[in-house]
């Protein structure tokens, strides 16, 4: 039986779907390029950048 393992945290999964779900839930984060803060969504990151770094575009 093929073993599926997350290459990031080494957690093991029964199915490919579980692994993909896990990766999206746990590891798909958005990082601020300016200060390295991490966010769960792009929206949160954008709000942070606007608030904290106020990039005048
Ligand atoms: Zn993982
Ligand atoms: Zn930042």
Explain how this protein is built.
- With 57 residues, the chain is an alpha+beta fold.
- The chain has a single domain, classed as 2-Layer Sandwich (Double Stranded RNA Binding Domain), CATH 3.30.160.
- Helix content is 42%, strand content 14%.
- The chain has helices at residues 16-27, 42-53; strands at 4-5, 12-13, 30-31, 38-39.
- Strands 1-2 form a two-stranded antiparallel sheet. A two-stranded antiparallel sheet has the order 3-4.
- Strand 1 (4-5) and strand 2 (12-13) form a beta hairpin.
- The longest helix is centred in the middle third of the chain and has 12 residues, at 16-27.
- It is elongated, with a radius of gyration of 16 Å.
- 0% of the residues are buried.
- Bound molecules: zinc ion (2 copies).
- One zinc ion binds next to helix 1.
Features:
57 residues; alpha+beta; Double Stranded RNA Binding Domain; two-stranded antiparallel sheet; 42% helix; binds zinc ion; zinc; metal-binding; zinc-finger; C2H2-type domain-containing protein; Znf_C2H2_sf
Task: Describe the structure in brief.
The protein is an alpha+beta fold and 57 residues long. The chain has a single domain (4-53), classed as Double Stranded RNA Binding Domain, CATH 3.30.160. The chain is 42% helix and 14% strand.
Map the helices and strands.
Elements lengths: L3 E2 L6 E2 L2 H12 L2 E2 L6 E2 L2 H12 L4
Antiparallel strand pairs: 1-2, 3-4
The chain binds zinc ion (2 copies).
């Amino acid at each position: 039986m093929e073993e599926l393992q997350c290459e990031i945290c080494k957690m093991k999964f029964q199915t490919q779907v579980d692994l993909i779900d896990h990766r999206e839930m746990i590891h798909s984060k958005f990082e601020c390029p300016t200060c390295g803060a991490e966010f769960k969504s792009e929206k949160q990151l954008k709000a942070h950048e606007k608030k904290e770094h106020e990039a005048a575009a």
